[in-house]
Amino acid sequence: MSNDTFTFFCPACGAKLTLALRLAGVVGPCPSCRSQIQAPTMEALMQHAQATGHNPIQALGAPQPQAPQPSQVAPQPPPQNTAESAPAASPRNPYFIEPRQLPQRSEPVEIVSRPISDETDRPREGSYAPPPRRRHSGAFRRALVPFVFLGATVALVAGLTLLLTNPNLLSLSKPPPEKAPSPVKKILTDDPVPTENPGTNQAAVTQPPKTDPTPPAPLLSPEDRGNRAMQTLETFLKANSLEERQPIIETSATPEELQKSCLNGKLPEARFDTLIQESNDLEKVVDCYYSVRFRTEDATENVQTMLVRIRGDAPPKVVVDPFLDLYGGRLKEFMASTGKDSGKFQVVLTPMKYCPAGVPAAETKGSIKLQSDSASPGVIGWAIFGVNGPIGKMLDDPSSGMHWGAPKYCTVVLQWNRDDPNKPYVEALDITRLDWNP
């Protein structure tokens, strides 16, 4: 009986199971699907054997019972039905079922067990019941890992981008430093003003009522600036004395120089045209250049360039230093006299790759044409400069704003060169500014 076995099917997964007869009715997990099942009980095995006439019990390793062979036996007399002749009955094993004389089968009949009920769903005390296996949970977690990594990467990149584009976020997280209490006591307007005799009653000091500041003037358009500059220039040209021109001029000359200049009197009749309007946003300055044509006594025209400057929202003013250099004759006087050593002048100059004959080392020098206006046919004079000097290097730099053969409003430093006393010439030492600024 210790080696007897029986076979049945798992009601959950249909696996074929074989157990020892002594484990009939046991409750435990299926080795295939790990579901809690109950093996057929001994009563179920007995009922199945009586109903089918087949013995499900097999001895592992024992030979199968063979059907008895009929043999020729001599007839025997019928037994005497007496109590004395009947042998004593041997005790019968209640768990053993004698096999019938049936044809030998190749496979034993398989018995399907029943699933355990709710009452028997719990394992027996002292037995191990492993947790049910969750199917597809590992595959879901593996599929979820790339999405989690992608989301974390996107969040990290977005955070770094936000910090780089908004550096103020770091400063906002820091609390502002606490200010130390000021030792200076503030006196409010409602507090009485301290006096030498605190016992005496003093009238409260009243503050003047606060008035709203004047709203800033709207920014002028280029057309409005040009119109205001033209009106100022027209007033300047029609004035009869220095006193009338004084409020609308800008100069570095002394009052004595102005009294002796052409500004202290009436100017010839003139007409003017707009040349160019330049803006300097850094200094908030707008320069308006005009070509002014004065009538002369011989019915010709003296063409001069004049500058009207607008500083911010201030009224336009005529810059008269270039006018005194060109129309007033200061540059012409310097070019005609060799007695002066050097001077700074505001002129219209044009750099040329030409050097007059008779200048020493003419192949290493260039010249500057000095004029009062780029459209004027006349030339006030010529100045020589070295191509390897500051002016030559400025002309070789494309970003400097100076170009060979192009006229430019500049401030230039001139000097008489007397290395050869017999052949002195005017030398241009440097160009200090590419505009007219007294």
Give the terminus-to-terminus CA distance: 130 Å
Main CATH class of one domain? Alpha Beta
- Mind telling me which CATH architecture of one domain this is? Roll
Number of helices: 9
Q: SSE string, helix = H, strand = E?
A: EEEEHEEHHHHEHEEEEHHEEEHEE
Helix content: 10-25%
- Content of β-strand: 15-25%
Low-confidence stretches: 58-74, 79-91, 117-121, 183-205
CATH fold type of one domain:
Nuclear Transport Factor 2, Chain: A
Shape: rod-shaped
- Mean pLDDT, to the nearest integer, reads 76
Number of DSSP-assigned strands:
16
Task: Please give the order of strands in the largest beta sheet.
Answer: 7-11-10-9-8
Major beta-sheet overview: 5 strands, mixed
Structural class: alpha+beta
Rg computed from alpha carbons, rounded to a whole number of angstroms? 62 Å
Q: Can you walk me through this structure?
A:
The protein has 438 residues and is of the alpha+beta class. Among the domains are: 1-61 and 96-127, no CATH class; 222-326, Nuclear Transport Factor 2, Chain: A, CATH 3.10.450; 337-433. The protein contains nine helices and 16 strands. The chain has helices at 42-52, 137-165, 168-173, 222-238, 242-245, 255-259, 321-326, 330-336, 390-396; strands spanning 4-9, 16-20, 27-29, 36-38, 58-59, 111-112, 249-250, 270-280, 285-295, 301-311, 317-319, 342-352, 365-371, 381-386, 408-417, 425-433. The strands form four sheets. It has a five-stranded mixed β-sheet with strand order 7-11-10-9-8. The chain has a five-stranded antiparallel β-sheet with strand order 14-13-12-15-16. Strands 1, 2, 5 and 6 form a four-stranded mixed β-sheet that branches. The longest helix has 29 residues, at 137-165. The protein is rod-shaped, with a radius of gyration of 62 Å. Mean pLDDT is 76; it is low at 58-74, 79-91, 117-121 and 183-205.
